[in-house]
Write a structure and sequence with these properties.
purine-nucleoside phosphorylase activity, Nucleoside_phosphorylase_sf, alpha/beta, globular, EC 2.4.2.1, Rossmann fold, 269 residues, 6 helices, transferase, Nucleoside_phosphorylase_d, 5-stranded mixed barrel, single chain
Length: 269
């Protein structure tokens, strides 16, 4: 709690005043900032108690500004379990955004399509998830000081915001799938057998993030919605070696559609 208060105070002193919406940008999804009136930005390594982004595709800045006449805080780059952080570290920024006053949280990620009806370059609204990280951001002593220990996860994603995204997608001819996201540790990608396993247990997409943030958002009773950019197709019967550059290219291809969805959602909140 002391860390949360110190970090929040630091950001408030630097002008992060009364944001309404928090946004977490995933791999290769930074161009939403082009649609933003940036007022303040701070590198993660300057923020007290903040982790530092170590992934080359994640910039590592917390940015405050205006999108669609709403005050927003944007994480340009997130943290991952595979970087060696605890899930408490990974989700610390969600607690900070909530403490700053954020009332809604929008999350994006890049993920692989398990469902063979989904194609790379398309988007998926996350309706539910499977936590395969082997850990929880709520599994620590004293968690009940921050909220209920046994958090209900029967509907972890906000349906109202989800409906707005689906309506916006339809109006803009965006192919927005709906499905289940599985979060794995990584950083290695999956084997053919692992992709088959993920399909059997009901996953439509797989990635290495998001679920911890969603759990903490629910712990804080912070309404949250999440969209995956599908960057590769994970068909175990036709699996090709991973090409990180192609994954980044697919993220860039789908990014304008994700920006449209998020901007229209922000406008309507």
């Amino acid at each position: 709690m002391q860390y949360i208060e110190q970090t929040t105070s630091y950001l408030q002193q630097r002008g992060f005043e009364n944001p309404e919406i928090g946004i977490i940008l995933g791999t290769g999804l930074g161009k939403l900032l082009d649609e933003m009136e940036i007022i303040h930005e701070v590198s993660y390594n300057h923020i007290p108690h903040f982790p530092t982004a170590t992934v080359e595709f994640h910039k590592g800045k917390l940015i405050y500004g205006i999108i669609e006449d709403k005050k927003v805080v944007v994480m340009q780059g997130r943290f991952h379990y595979y970087e060696g952080y605890s899930l408490k570290d990974v989700t610390f920024p969600v607690r900070i955004m909530h403490q700053l006053g954020v009332k809604k949280l929008l999350v994006s990620n890049a993920s692989g399509a398990i469902n063979t009806n989904f194609k790379k370059g398309e988007l998926m609204l996350i309706d539910d998830h499977i936590n395969l990280l082997g850990d929880s951001p709520l599994a620590f002593k004293g968690v009940s000081k921050y909220g209920e220990r046994f958090v209900d996860m029967s509907q972890p994603y906000d349906q109202e915001m989800g409906e707005i995204l689906k309506k916006t997608a339809k109006e803009n001819n965006i192919n927005l799938h709906e499905g289940v996201y599985a979060s794995v540790v990584g950083p290695q990608l999956e084997t053919r057998a692992e992709y088959r396993y993920l399909k059997i247990i009901g996953a439509d997409a797989v990635g290495m993030s998001t679920v911890p943030e969603i759990i903490v958002a629910n712990h804080l009773k912070l309404p949250v919605v999440a969209v995956s950019v599908l960057t590769d197709e994970c068909d175990p019967d036709h699996l090709k070696p991973v090409d990180i550059q192609e994954i980044m290219a697919m993220a860039a291809k789908a990014e304008p559609q994700m920006i449209t969805l998020f901007k229209e959602l922000i406008k309507s909140l």
